[in-house]
Amino acid sequence: MNTGCLLIISAENLLLVPFWLTWWFYLLLMVIVVIAGYIYHRINMNAVLHQKADVERKLLERTELLSYSKLSVQRAREDEARANHNKSLLISKISHDIRTPMNTIMGMTALLNETALNYEQQEYTSTILYSGENLLSIINEILMNDILEYSKIESGRELEAKEFDLRTNIEEVLDIFASKAGQTDIELAYDISEKVPVQLMGDALRLRQILMNFVENALRFTTRGEVFIGVKLVEQKEDYRLKLEFEVRDTGVGLSPEKLASLANNLKSETTEGTNSGLDIALTVCKKLVRLMDGSVKVESQEKKGTTFKFTILMSAGKQTPHKNTQAEMLKLTGKKILIADDSFTVGHLLKKQFDSWKLVPFLADSGKQALALLAQQGSFDLALIDMQMPEMNGIELAKSIKQLFPELPIILLNKTGNEDYKKHSALFSSVIDKPLKQHVLSGQVLNLLWQKGKDGLANDQQKQKLSVEFAKQYPLNILIAEDDKMNQKLVSKVLNKLGYEPHVSENGKDVLEEVSQKNYDLILMDVQMPEMDGLEATRMIRVCLTEQPIIIAMTANTLQGDREECLKAGMDDYISKPVRLDGLVNIIEKWALQGQQGQ
């Protein structure tokens, strides 16, 4: 009875417990929490997946946009490269097509000028030659301006590292402007410090491009005086690279302080904006190229006194040695007394420095009057070098006075390119050298006159060199002419015939290969542009196939920057441009003939 009551009370008490305190409630709560967590997780997962999909979509869009952009840039570069290539081909074609017939015109006129002509005929031929030189100057100026613009595009390319001859590089730059300077009172000269190796490893084309731009602008603002290129060694780096400093100095109008400050700021800046004038354009191109060669540019100027641009570049010394050891040859003349008469302070002292290095004894005079005074004081000399254009007494007048006192003294006339006034008095001179002076020409003429005792006068010397078989007897060579143009074949053959040679002619590269396979030739005058096989390919084949290698000289109307390097890279030994001058052709044949004789 009592127990039943207690149970009833307990059950009633249980019925009175709230639901949220029962285990059923906790179980239900846990289920709800799990369901809510699952729903929350699914919502977050869907959001993440949506974001991921959105990111992937945007990434895909950007990838496609980037690919399209790269493709557009690549197409633009290809179009630009194609345009530049077509531009280069056009310039090359214009140069080649003009120079090829001009080679015949000027060459045949020069040959005609060497024959017996009366005064009126000489005047006519001289006028043709003078007009031809003027036309060439115009062509060069037009093409150079085009190249200047072209160089702005090309200046971002990587540098080449090839071995080259620094002296030849500078002389070729000055050669381009020789005719233009010859028509004015401007001297072109250069000097390379003894510490600078002549053979360098670097980008010869870029260096020439820089020098051409600076020299061209120097001539533009100079009416008389000089344009001078100097090279010196500044520092030898630990990695064996050389820091060289070049200067291009003129005696022109100079720059005002305002213009000088503007240019100096331009040189220091990284931008190239505001370059409108010709000088600014050239400076911008040069600044880019110099910086590409780890160097810098600076300018110095005084108004009405001239301007000097200086730039440094890094290069390495070359491993090759020059073909001809001029110093050893000139030692044969040690102690010979040389009279130098030149009113140009720079040219005179450069000649004195050169003769001192050759162990000769130079005496320097800056006028004809002073030269005669030195002759009176010193007595006999072994050789005299006199400038054609000097105040009060020119070279012809001085030569006449010297011959009256010392009729046997050999005289070398230093002549402006294109000036032919001396020809009426050719018997006075043993030799004539055109300015700007080239070391190998100067040393060759001095060596010939002093070592071989050549004192017969220029008239006989010209007969010996140009119009007589004596030249071929002195320098016997088997010569092959590779030329497709009939008129140029005739011209070069005539010149070589007058030198005493009987050359063979081939019209294309295939004929050249067939000819050299049957007969050994000492020298080949190789045109570059020929049908069937050009001169470059023919040269490469010769260098690979022949045991006995001939001297190959490019004789081409391709005269743009890089053409010479392309010829040398193909295996050619030297380069002469069309129109070919008689003196130039004779000198280059003599140069390689002498080298061949020395190598025997």
Describe this structure in words.
One of its GO terms (molecular function) is phosphorelay sensor kinase activity. Pfam families: HATPase_c, HisKA, Response_reg. Its EC number is 2.7.13.3. The chain is of the alpha/beta class. The protein has 3 domains: 186 residues, Rossmann fold (3-Layer(aba) Sandwich); 163 residues, 2-Layer Sandwich (Heat Shock Protein 90), CATH 3.30.565; 139 residues, Response regulator (Rossmann fold), CATH 3.40.50. It contains 20 helices and 17 strands. Helix 2 crosses helix 16 and helix 11 runs parallel beside helix 12.
Largest sheet: 7 strands, mixed
The CATH topology label of the largest domain is Rossmann fold
Structural class: alpha/beta
Which second-level CATH architecture of the largest domain applies? 3-Layer(aba) Sandwich
List keywords for this structure.
single chain, 600 residues, alpha/beta, Rossmann fold, Heat Shock Protein 90, 3 domains, seven-stranded mixed β-sheet, five-stranded parallel β-sheet, elongated, transmembrane helix, two-component regulatory system, phosphoprotein, membrane
